[in-house]
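Residues pack. Consider this:
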Amino acid sequence: MTEKEKMIKGHPYIANDPELVKERMRARKLTRLFNNSSEDEIDKRISI
């Protein structure tokens, strides 16, 4: 079972797993892009 599968099932997992770190970094980047867009940039927000 992967660390991500453990996390999803609510089991103890290692947060520093490379797959989880990569996904967390991607999520932070997308959140930053969304938050830095303005309210009238609807198409940009949808694409994010």
The chain is about 65% helix and 0% strand. The radius of gyration is 15 Å. The chain has one domain: 3-47. The CA atoms of residues 33 and 48 lie 8 Å apart.
